[in-house]
């Protein structure tokens, strides 16, 4: 009997790889192993519509059970893989059983980074990554008046928007001098800071956190300068780290994420990786990248599946990403790292504009705020790597 194709990690990337394998005509056994109890689901709504109660569990799922039955994809939910034996082509599960594989894809994603400060283990100190995180967050949101969010990245700011809409007093604490600093220019940060302030959100910028107060439950956050921010709910949103333990335990190289080549192959025969957990060499950007986005999970999983059936193609995307805060949609195309100037078009005060990042004359990235057509045009322009058509035309397209 031929061993199955095995996918560890039943998230966005794992599911897309399974779907793609079937589309590509792979008709052997296909097993999708996930340690969460649900069928594969979308994470973005966890900090948006689902958190607000505007989306039910069924719509959160990426595919219904009927799909897996029809496509003959065996989903083993609630099953954790604990060890890989690359030489024997075998995976050990938490219950001690072993599964042979012909090809293995690691799509293990990321986990929320914890904060190593006093009080981080108090009740009411929460993170937001999985569907299991939502019930305690909703319960806390119902029970408290004051919410503190540590980290002004995308998840922190999206959560701030939801908590403010729920009528809570919200403070975002960010160590850097502005929110979203890691990925956008100061003008975009300023626009979102103003948006949040207009909704009553307080921003404590450029300040570290000393400790979380309260015992046994959180009552507040003490900042590095001694200021106390009252909070019965403290969301720790300080980024995510790739889940690489299985790969490292199997002797695979880890370089930020599980290191793969341009075709999603690790150095071990028949083992591939894709999605948030994988770092790959990008010829487009001249360096190794690890991306945390739906775009990357989907597109890299497609590339990994192609490689698994012997049709390897280099994966080298124009990354894109979105974030929803209140009624505002930010869409980012490209990577702005290394830009030396920006051009803004449209009037930020109108609520719809685009900001283009350049290195010399080369367009690197475009952030579009409530300008979806500008975003789509930017993606096409960047994919063609054509001479920039200029932010004016990009913004007008929005
Ligand atoms: C709250 C939130 C909001 C987001 N919003 C956006 C957005 O607006 N736009 C955007 O582009 N991206 C967004 N993202 C990011 C996007 O959801 C991720 O990039 C995407 O889910 C990555 O998919 P993945 O399959 O690589 O990893 P995951 O979706 O994390 O799936 C990995 C799965 O593998 C499982 N696993 C790990 N180890 C094992 C093991 N040993 N055995 C079995 N199973 C294992 C994990 O439990 C998990 O279920 C958001 C993420 C979060 C958390």
From TrEMBL:
Q: Tell me which Pfam families the record gives.
A: Pyr_redox_2, Reductase_C
Please state what the protein is called: Pyridine nucleotide-disulfide oxidoreductase, putative
Q: Where is the FAD/NAD(P)-binding domain?
A: 6-301
Please indicate if the UniProt record lists Flavoprotein as a keyword.
yes
What would be one Gene Ontology cellular-component term for the protein?
A: cytoplasm
Q: Which InterPro entries match?
A: FAD-oxidoreductase/Apoptosis (IPR050446), FAD/NAD-bd_sf (IPR036188), FAD/NAD-binding_dom (IPR023753), FAD/NAD-linked_Rdtase_dimer_sf (IPR016156), Reductase_C (IPR028202)
Which terms in the Gene Ontology molecular function aspect does this entry carry? Answer: oxidoreductase activity, acting on NAD(P)H
Which UniProt keywords are given for this protein, alphabetically ordered?
A: FAD, Flavoprotein, Oxidoreductase
Looking at the record, the residues that make up the Reductase C-terminal domain are 320-389
Please list the cofactors this protein needs.
Answer: FAD
């Amino acid at each position: 009997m031929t061993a199955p194709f095995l996918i560890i990690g039943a998230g966005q990337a794992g599911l897309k790889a399974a779907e793609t394998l079937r589309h590509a005509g792979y008709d052997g056994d296909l097993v999708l192993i996930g340690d969460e109890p649900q069928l594969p689901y979308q994470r973005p709504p966890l900090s948006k519509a689902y958190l607000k109660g505007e989306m039910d569990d069924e719509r959160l799922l990426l595919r219904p059970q009927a799909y897996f039955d029809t496509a003959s994809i065996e989903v083993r939910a609630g099953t954790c893989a604990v060890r890989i034996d690359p030489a024997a082509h075998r995976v050990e599960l938490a219950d001690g059983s072993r599964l042979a594989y012909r090809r293995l894809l690691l799509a293990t994603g990321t986990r929320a980074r914890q904060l190593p400060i006093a009080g981080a283990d108090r009740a009411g100190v929460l993170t937001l990554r999985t569907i299991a995180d939502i019930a305690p967050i909703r319960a806390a949101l119902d029970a408290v008046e004051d919410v503190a969010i540590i980290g002004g990245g995308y998840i922190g700011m999206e959560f701030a928007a939801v908590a403010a809409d729920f009528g809570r007093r919200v403070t975002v604490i960010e160590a850097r001098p502005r929110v979203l600093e890691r990925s956008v220019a100061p003008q975009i940060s300023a626009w979102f800071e103003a948006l949040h302030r207009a909704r009553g959100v307080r921003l404590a910028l450029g300040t570290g956190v000393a400790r979380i107060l309260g015992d046994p439950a959180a009552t507040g956050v003490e900042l590095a300068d001694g200021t106390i921010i009252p909070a019965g709910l403290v969301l720790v949103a300080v980024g995510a780290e790739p889940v690489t333990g299985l790969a490292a335990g199997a002797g695979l190289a880890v370089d930020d994420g599980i290191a793969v080549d341009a075709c999603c192959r690790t150095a071990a025969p028949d083992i591939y990786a894709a999605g948030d957990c994988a770092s790959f060499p990008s010829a487009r950007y001249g360096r190794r990248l690890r991306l945390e986005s739906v775009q990357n999970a989907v597109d890299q999983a497609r590339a990994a599946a192609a490689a698994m059936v012997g049709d390897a193609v280099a994966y080298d995307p124009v990354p894109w990403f979105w974030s929803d805060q209140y009624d505002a949609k930010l869409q980012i195309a490209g990577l702005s790292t290394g830009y030396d100037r920006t051009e803004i078009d449209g009037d930020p005060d109108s609520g719809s504009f685009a900001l283009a990042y350049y290195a010399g004359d080369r367009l690197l990235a475009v952030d579009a705020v409530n300008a979806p057509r500008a975003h789509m045009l930017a993606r096409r322009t960047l994919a063609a790597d054509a001479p920039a058509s200029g932010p004016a035309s990009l913004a007008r397209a929005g």
